[in-house]
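Q: Can I see a sequence and its folded structure?
A: Here is a first one.
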Amino acid sequence: MNTIQLSVVIPVYNEEAGLQTLFDRLYPALDTLGISYEVVFINDGSRDRSAALLREQFQKRADVTRVVLFNGNFGQHMAIMAGFEQSRGQRVVTLDADLQNPPEDIGLLLAKMDEGHDYVGSIRRQRNDSWWRHVASRAMNNLRERITRIKMTDQGCMFRAYSRDIINAINSCHEVNTFIPALAYSFARNPAEVVVGHDERLAGESKYSLYSLIRLNFDLMTGFSLVPLQMFSMAGMLISVFSGLFFVFLVVRRLIIGPEAEGLFTLFALVFFMIGITLFGIGLLGEYVGRIYQQVRHRPRYLVEAVLESRSED
């Protein structure tokens, strides 16, 4: 079998309206690279005609197209993990199906890898997202870098290139919840970033709600660092010290001034504040315990219904 130089992994979820445009732009862009390639689509339980369109495209370009059909919706990152396991290229590029990142820029990622980098991330040149997405993304980037020491300028962009060594390392992991760009960064010896184009979504709506983004960042924080737990341990010790000092202050004040009813609401405020911190800390601890619980059950991360591929090369 001839060695495939490039695999393009594309998760698909309810992208019926824009798939044909993706096909029309993706394959010509890859043909112009002048290298052997394959495109691996993963249908993540789409409820529209995405699966049917992928089947049709496979029939048209069976020589370079493979389609993985999930029997349910398991999420973008699990779809990409399945694509990694199916990919055969020496380099792998992940691309969203919504065409917000132009497939014509795949050559930019590969050119950067030619300089000796084993993992190349991307920075969107001009983000066409809502203002709150800009603010939330910037805040989470700063927090993530401080906690995990993982440096990614634009963590929300999945348009990235990976060497085969990085893909093999990722495939050896069996984490139920993970953040693929951060996982790859932890394995990379010489990571880099390039600036790529960013357009408005061609059709449909974003699959990431505010809750999904919060969940994703929780996975990132708790999956790659123990710093959140350590921060709450330190906070607990500091609060204990200040609480002890405050108790001594109140006792001395009572002995000198006598009973004071006016301080009751101040105590209530302090108690509610402590309760809030405690509940948040318990929730954070529960996040780690929940990850352990999901991992030890050893349930399949995803279920593949079928894989459409040509066997002519075997």
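Q: Show me another, different protein.
A: A second, unrelated one:
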Amino acid sequence: MKIDLTETNSSKINAALVKARRDIGTPAIGMVLTLVIVTDEENAYDALKSANDASHEHPSRIVVVIKRVSRSPRSRQGARLDAEIRVGADSGTGETVVLRLHGELVDHAQSVVLPLLLPDAPVVVWWPDGAPADLAGDPLGALGQRRITDTYSCEDPIGALGARAAAYSPGDTDLSWTRVTPWRSMLAAALDQQVLSVASATVEGESDNPSCELLAMWLADRLQVPVRRMPSGGPGLTAVRLETKDGAIVLDRADGALATLCMPGQPDRSVALKRRDTAELLAEELRRLDPDNTYEASLKFGVAKLDSSAPPAEAPAAEAEAPAKPEAPAKAEPKRTAKPTKKAAAK
């Protein structure tokens, strides 16, 4: 069922939701959270489709906020709210409210969304694209216990990681981090099988893919070893190599679907490591509403590296090589010191 409301308000929207549930015979609310999607017309369809697919695992009220910025100064002075309500088969397993804000109402979206939140239920805010620099400081972001963004959609994905780290607040997360969950699980399981000391690591992937940088930062933070970042043709992450004294542990995924795990003293094995769509990533993030401390540590580990001249993941390797560079000049200096000048002075 779909209901269109023009020039409406939050009170009328709530009344229409109750009436729509009664009309389809489901007056009870069985939803576990409110998912607020802040997007534009261009990305609204894809974002809503992913949210509806994720609602099969997490029944929720989905509130889509679309800000329609007026072009003329006279139109900006007015304020209008249009809404589209979807319940039943048109809204996954929950219910959907699509809000289109016009005029001055664009700057006060939180006042429209607040009355539509489910009572006594967690709130998650998701920016599929165009996320603010400070997620928790944003008026809509302040409504949520969990704030989801995707640095992969940014114009400068690698630079956006530094901005996310600088303005990080507990509850922030990134779908670029969610994409590396299977990689982190596979690598951790490989190291649990054999007690090996990792000396260095290499991460291969697309040069502008923030998931590659986050995985490299996680390895450098957890293993405290130099990590190199090697560009490849993709798709996405392609390989991780951990160097040990007994040989290399290699997780190689060249086709984006099936990976090969190579470990010292063991036969190579094939593991499923397919690239997941947005609905699967979103469903994973909605499973946990507490702060992700591992993401925080990995993200903040890369702040200094992102601000330096060296690449984020190569900074640990540069630090490890730094002591070796002065050794050659230090040994060569005695041969060129003041001894020849002393002999010359004696003559």
